[in-house]
């Protein structure tokens, strides 16, 4: 993949046009100077983002940048362009819920406005059961709440937030135990506690046109419902620094995140590791950084375009040249600066590029799509050059519709996702788009790997439909998905001879899934919810004729104060 002058000129043209084509000012009917409390960051997965998404869709607007964490200034800038009086009853309820949470309830404030504290209690009790342990859980551990958490916000003036959330949580390995019919988020013995906590802890500051965040939090770049292709909230957390500048029509962000890696359990052929050590002693490193910058533009309030470009540097300390916000982060200008890995001369550096589009073509409706690539190989290259790296491409196409029915806010979506067998996987595991952390098992110290792209991974085709409805007291949901998964998994198995493989590869495993959910708000701080679903698997484990099926049910009580 390369970036000739023509591409750079085209990007510059889009930036200029975003200023020329944008509305000259917010709607005159929209409220101005909305109330704003201390500076806060709203993280990926926060229910407020779903409220914000519903309000924006109903107003017929596109998102400039749906890339949480979002600062309170960014959220308020979005609300400032919306006429709340024109929203439905359910839309106004969501709008007000966002406003209420933009002014945190302070537990302590000094006599001067220089210092304040907000402390909350998040508690949840969850249990689940499945009929067949050979069928994966419908609800994976990344969606599981902590047993109890104490989010603490320390505010210094109006523009600095320090945040930490101590938690008592079950280690994901135990919660997602593959041999048990039962699961719970209660760590009833010492080894089941997640010792990686806190999973969210950071310092942040910002203003009306910028923000900066340093620490540990979730990230998600894009409007995907089943996940995002470039940077998603599939990992448990990221350790990162991010700087963003934004206006009504343009946002620029630069991100750097540290990603330690050990290959002890990552190689598809474990017998390679002893031989590898004889060739190279690089089997793990903490000097592994992913650098990314992203440019978001909005046109006519209806169309948004996002461009992301990143590079994974596999065994190097933090480098200033990658912190240059105007540098082209393609691996070509630096890949020869690092030694090769293993006997197959694997590169310690890899690149990623993504394009996001969103078109709110009429109130309530939006079309969106994503394209991501690690390696673009033309048929000419793959047919004529046996050493050509295999292509690594991914595509996502989605549509959603938001409307009101009486006092209910209803949302529907449909998504298609296709990923190549070698998306996210490059010629060495250190240059691949892989996230890792250690399990809390003090005896085994098992390693936990994930793509930091789409959670369903590579080498697959996915079709999904979803429905959700929310009222003042109740909420309902339904999610249906069909997936064909090839034989390539998170294990590193890259080889140049596979440059013509198509997805899904080999004998694919076919899964059909259905999840029905319901919840009731007993009062604002206490919510009861449940789910029931089933899974059908054909050719399970990629073995022809090996079919599995199972049902799953779960209950959760959540308390927030």
Helix count, per DSSP? 7
Query: How far apart are the termini?
Result: 50 Å
Can you count the beta strands? 29
* Class inferred from helices and paired strands: mainly beta
Q: Any low-confidence stretches, pLDDT <50, length ≥5?
A: 1-32
Helix content: 10-25%
Estimate the strand proportion.
35-45%
Mean pLDDT: 87
Tertiary shape = globular
Question: Biggest sheet: strands, sense, closure?
Answer: 23 strands, antiparallel
The radius of gyration over CA amounts to: 23 Å
Name some characteristics of this structure:
561 residues, 7 helices, 23-stranded antiparallel β-sheet, mainly beta
Quick structural overview:
This protein is mainly beta.
Notes on the protein architecture:
The protein is mostly beta strands. Helices cover 12% and strands 39% of the residues. The strands form four sheets. It has a 23-stranded antiparallel beta sheet that branches. Helix 2 packs across helix 4 (89-101). The radius of gyration is 23 Å and the shape is globular.
Task: Outline the fold blueprint.
Elements: H1 5-21, E1 41-42, H2 47-59, E2 70-71, H3 72-80, H4 89-101, E3 108-109, E4 115-119, E5 122-130, E6 148-149, E7 152-156, E8 160-164, E9 167-168, H5 172-175, E10 182-184, E11 201-206, E12 210-217, E13 238-246, E14 250-258, E15 261-262, H6 272-279, E16 284-285, E17 289-299, E18 303-313, E19 349-362, E20 365-375, H7 379-384, E21 392-405, E22 408-419, E23 434-438, E24 447-451, E25 460-470, E26 474-485, E27 509-523, E28 526-538, E29 548-560
Helix pairs in contact: 2-4
